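Teaching note: in complex prediction, the entire set of molecules is handled at once rather than each chain in isolation. The prompt given to students was simply: 'Predict the structure of this complex.' The entities are:
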Amino acid sequence: MSPRGRRPGGEDTRGAIVEAARAEFSRGGYDATSLRAVARRAGVDPALVHHYFAGKPALFAEVVGAPADPSALLGAILEGPREELGRSLARAFLQLWDSPEGRTRFEMVFRSTASHEESASLLREFLAKEVFGRIVAAVGDPSAPQERQRLRAGLAASQMVGLAVMRFILRLSWVAEASVDDIVDEVGPVLQGYLVR
Amino acid sequence: MSPRGRRPGGEDTRGAIVEAARAEFSRGGYDATSLRAVARRAGVDPALVHHYFAGKPALFAEVVGAPADPSALLGAILEGPREELGRSLARAFLQLWDSPEGRTRFEMVFRSTASHEESASLLREFLAKEVFGRIVAAVGDPSAPQERQRLRAGLAASQMVGLAVMRFILRLSWVAEASVDDIVDEVGPVLQGYLVR
DNA sequence: ACCGTTTTTCATCACGCGATGAAATATACA
DNA sequence: TGTATATTTCATCGCGTGATGAAAAACGGT
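The expected output is the structure of the full assembly:
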């Protein structure tokens, strides 16, 4: 490969490794991704990956830990008109995931979640606390018991997760090839029904 | 382990291997499951797995290929009263998956789907053709373009898949611990709205 | 009682994995 | 210039994997 020793130009090798890791993790998930494959893609010796990151878990944490955090996005939606909440949510999530990086991030998290119990816990707690907990708190409908509200919020989340699975993982053509607008027309009212009663 | 040679009693060793494989595939999916782990669980030498099955793919095919086929179930539902279709579907799928073996099968297929592109194609085609294609054909609403109907069927499928992911994989407590009746009350009308307009 | 067949373990092979410590080279700063 | 430091590859180790061929033991039919 390259000669030994430090490279001439001021290249961001560490960044290249992270980028390569993101690509590899997003196809195949956690277990199926090898440090050697990451190194290969980054054009780098496997030992260098170990030099920068303590091990595979640390590398994974680095990759998923740099979040385009959805809190801001969510806040804006929750302050919009209440009768548009379902459609706004649907559109926001779809646009978030339809971007190339969002899509990549979703696939990555999903695949790792499926194959790695630890990731599932992380994602579960994040979703419950940071996303849907906030929604429940914001659009609270006092006429229903809290249990019911939470179930409804969970089902709204289920609809979005299922949608993403169909569109990005399973790629069922009826869903994968539909336009964002058409999907928002259908899913918006459903979310509205779950969340604002 | 055991002495060499054939075992005394008329044990169904092949069946034990299949059972062990089912258990192992269902936790960890395709890639993360090793033939050695299957053999270990079955109390058998790894080479014996190879004796009965040509290799890992063949073993996997054997395990997922024995289907409790949902066609019959589906047929019964489609002949029931149309205004109950959403609730019937929701209840049927939930009961199917809530049984221990159904749950296991779902986890297995899901994990393999997530980590193995080939499985995703299989599942996609099966869902489109055998399940939701039939629903669309049966409850066809001529006032909407076929494209729209198919999107709606796909979204109904998404809701059920997402529900199962939340309940069985992510185990978000709000959804995982709810009763079947409560979920049917909420999801039934949503499916009804997607499918029968 | 014999012999062919089936079932089972044993002993390997080659390979890819994650990890580690040492060596080589470029940069940074005095 | 000289020397400390950061960056990078090299050479391994030990382990688990999927696969294969041969040997041993029980069964089944005659």
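Point out the following to students. DSSP finds eleven helices and no strands in chain A. The CA atoms of residues 78 and 138 of chain A lie 7 Å apart.
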